[in-house]
Amino acid sequence: MNDENVESKKGIALKIIIPVLIICAIAGIWIVKDKKYKSGLEGTDKSSKVITDSTDFELHVTEQIDLEKLKSYRLPIVIDFGSDSCIPCKEMAPVLNELNAELRGKAIIRFVDVWKYQQFADGYPISVIPTQIFIDANGKPYNPKDPQAMQMRMYSSKDNGEHVFTAHEGGMTKDQMLSVLKEMGLE
Fold it and tell me: Which residues touch 116 (CB under 8 Å, ≥6 apart)?
């Protein structure tokens, strides 16, 4: 009976230890995968991860925009030139806020208050506010399929005729902005 008792205890121990080991293995795998997912490294290498906590992704511009740096992210870019005090700009503010929050890491949405930071508009074709400047994911001025229908203005260099800016004057809805962003390479 002694041998039976030992065998019985071994059987009970195995029935307890095996499920515990399986649970520990599953928990360990889940923790590792969850850590990779949260760090944004699942399926990508660290060098290709867009760092969205950079000031380059903040909506409100408080220092001169480094356009070349923004282009280096290889994301569609929208720069809205307006003012916190202008009525059409105020109507567009929720759209910009939503898009900036929803598309962080997929697109760059920036807002320049030209009444506070007039010098930040230098070099851009701004004659009314709000005006949006669009740059595609390849760092080139957005080239819309139908500029007339989208009320886009195409600006070219006087020196060589090269397309340098695509702009929209006036407010835009969220759907209009999303449509343009998708055409510009939003994934």
Answer: 83, 84
Number of neighbouring beta carbons within 10 Å of residue 144? 18
**pLDDT value, residue 55:** 86
73 and 141 together in one domain: yes
**Each residue's pLDDT tens digit, 64-78:** 999 999 999 999 999
CA distance 76 to 175: 16
Amino acid at 170: G
- 3-state SS, one letter per residue, for the chain: CHHHHHHHHHHHHHHHHHHHHHHHHHHHHHHHHHHHHHCCCCCCCHHHCCCCCCHHHCCECCCCCCHHHHHHCCCCEEEEEECCCCHHHHHHHHHHHHHHHHCECCEEEEEEECCCCHHHHCCCCCCCCCEEEEECCCCCECCCCCCCCCCEEEEECCCCCCEEEEEEECCCCHHHHHHHHHHCCCC
**Cα dihedral value 132, 98, 137, 72, nearest 10:** 100
Stretch 86-98: mean pLDDT: 96
Is 91 found in the same domain as 77?
Answer: yes
Indicate the pLDDT class of residue 154, thresholds 50, 70 and 90. Answer: very high
Do 21 and 94 share a domain, yes or no? no
Strand partners, 111: 60, 80
Counted domains in the chain = 2
